[in-house]
Amino acid sequence: MLKSKLLFFLFFPILLISQNEKIAAEKLKQDLTIFKEIREKANSGLYKYRSKQQIDSVYSWAFTQINKPQELIEFYKIILQITDFEGSLHNDTTLPADFEKKYASGNVFFPFPVKLIENKLVVNFDNQQLPLGSEIHSINGINSYKILNSIYKYYTTDGYNITGKSIGIGSSFAKYFRMEYGPCKSFIVEYSLPNQTQKKTKTIKAVSNDTRKENFKKRFSLPVDSLQYNRAKDKYSFKIITGNTALLSVHTFVIGRNAKHKEHLAYKKYLDSCFQYLAKNNQIKNLIVDVRNNGGGTDPNDIVTFSYLAQKPFRENASAYVNFLEIPFAEYLVYEETEPQKKQEEKKDFEEELKEEFTENQDDNYFQNEKFNELLQPDQNSFKGQVYLLISPRIASAGSLFASLVAGNTNAIVIGEETMGGYFGHNGHTPIEYELPNTKIRTQFSIVNLNQDVPKKSNQIFGRGVIPDFKVIQTFDDFLKNKDTQLEYTLNLIQQK
Questions:
Q1: Cα-based torsion angle of the residue sequence 62, 65, 68, 71 in order, rounded to the nearest 10 degrees
Q2: What are the tens digits of pLDDT across the range 400-409?
Q3: pTM score above 0.85
Q4: Which neighbouring-strand residues pair with 6?
Q5: How far apart, in Å, are the Cα atoms of 402 and each of 288, 318, 326, 421, 459?
Q6: Cα–Cα nearest to 117, from 227, 252, 224, 250
Q7: Domain contains 16
Q8: How does pLDDT run across 32-89, given as a tens digit for each residue?
Q9: Which residues pair with 204 in a beta bridge?
Q10: Is residue 305 very low, low, confident or very high in pLDDT (cuts 50, 70, 90)?
Q11: Beta-carbon neighbour count of residue 409 at 10 Å?
Q12: Looking at the domain assignment, is residue 381 inside a domain?
């Protein structure tokens, strides 16, 4: 696997278009054409979940939307629709910096954090205007179902997954609503009180982006979901819960940059001590592994962790490939360097790394060689008892790869909700970023198409995340009590056994 990645630090050129200016349709079509050609040449996952006919169809639709001059935001929404349709959680499309500032200014934001509970949009903030737990039925006459469907495109997930979008909605609902429906000085909210059906209407004032952020930090669900949105200070922990059950929590795989990094080495040492203890203490028959907050990170943290649960040799990938060795459309590439000569050196170094790792050409796809995808062995102290894996919609990238390996290749009982990262694979490892010439919109995606080393299983569906053996969601009553539903369910299951 590529350890040294092409980095894309943001520097922003002087914009050639004002924030209120409409851009000529010809320029927008030119950018859309370049966007399409870049993804056809550089994005190995373009047809992972969609056929060529489907991808061509969405572009045909996009071109029909550009028949007159448009403001940048309208074109941006078209691009978002396409990147979301592709189905990769590593897709990221951003506006130029000055436009981002524009859409973060003014008292125009919905004031309260929300949360999806049992498919209902619920107020997640203790306040006097819209009581905590109230269900929102509509905002400014737009029903909540329509709102949710319209803002899904702002938060990408793998394949056809929808559950993972709840993470974006929980953190950025007000931002997405402002982008989708424009600035509002107030909001007419149709709602019903907790556990009631009678609908009420109230007009509430909009707030600034800073107030929106502060309210989110004070959301009601913070005790339960704090680690889903913030990098964990305590990234991992281990404790004995009962005489026969232990709990290993790994909240992120951002634990050092590589296998030699001191933070990774400290993590490896910590795992060694935990599993040596379990190996010596044969009274502990059950191990709960909680990765519900794990949005990914870097190798080899995910693979090292799995080695303590594996019972047989394994690989990280069944296969992995890219579809170029020389960067296409390099004139639109976003570089770390700014000087022309250094840009060329950066490009050359990146391409040399690709040629070292992806050496096997099959139908113009370049596959990863054995050196970068070795057969790995279980750790000598790998756990031999019953594993319970806790999963959630937050799990992505390296987190979902780990969850897939555990769900597919061990005796683990999987509990919780479907992950946003795919069971069978994803596009990951190596990001690349381009900037469109006329609009200055930036698009980033990962270039390595991964098929994970997991078996087919009757309950795992192509294009979906890891599906739990026991689907356990937080009920509305549990939400009001800030109850950890999945962990309590698991402990009760162990007790029954």
A1: -80
A2: 999 999 999 9
A3: yes
A4: none
A5: 14, 14, 31, 10, 18
A6: 224
A7: no
A8: 999 999 999 999 999 999 999 999 999 999 999 999 999 999 999 999 999 999 999 9
A9: 187
A10: very high
A11: 18
A12: yes
Half-sphere exposure of 437 (CA within 13 A, CB side): 12
d(CA 98, CA 106): 14
Q: Position of tokens 């999987």?
A: 414
Give domain status of residue 13, yes or no.
Answer: no
Residue 165: is its pLDDT beyond 70?
yes
**Domain-located, residue 437:** yes
CA atoms within 13 A on the CB side of 253: 27
Q: Residue 199: which CATH number?
A: 2.30.42.10
Can you tell me the distance from the alpha carbon of 338 to that of 341, in angstroms, rounded to the nearest whole number? 9
- Are residue 204 and residue 251 in the same domain, yes or no? no
Residues 322, 296, single domain; the answer is yes
pLDDT exceeds 70 at position 19 = no
Give the structural domain span for 81.
Answer: 22-86
Q: How many domains, the chain? A: 3
What is the C-alpha separation between 357 and 334, in angstroms, rounded? 23
Q: Do residues 185 and 43 both lie within one domain?
A: no
Does residue 425 share a domain with residue 374?
yes
Q: Are the C-beta atoms of residues 369 and 360 closer than 8 Å to each other?
A: yes
- Phi, psi (deg, nearest 5) at residue 43: -100, 100
C-alpha–C-alpha distance, residues 61 and 54, integer Å? 11
CA-closest candidate to residue 487, choices 205, 280, 289: 289
Domain boundary among 220, 240, 256: 220
d(CA 122, CA 189): 12
Q: Where are the alpha helices (DSSP H) in 43-90?
A: 52-64, 72-86
By DSSP bridging, strand 245-250 and strand 386-391 are: unpaired
Name the residue type at position 201: T
Q: Residue-wise over 158-189: b if at least 16 C-beta within 10 A, else e?
A: bbebbbbbbbbbbbbbbbbbbbbeeebeebeb
Kindly report the number of other CB atoms within 10 A of residue 341's CB atom: 8
494 within 8 A of 245, measured Cβ to Cβ: yes
Residues 380 and 275 in one domain: yes
| pLDDT exceeds cutoff 60 at 465 | yes
Span 357-392, pLDDT tens digits:
999 999 999 999 999 999 999 999 999 999 999 999
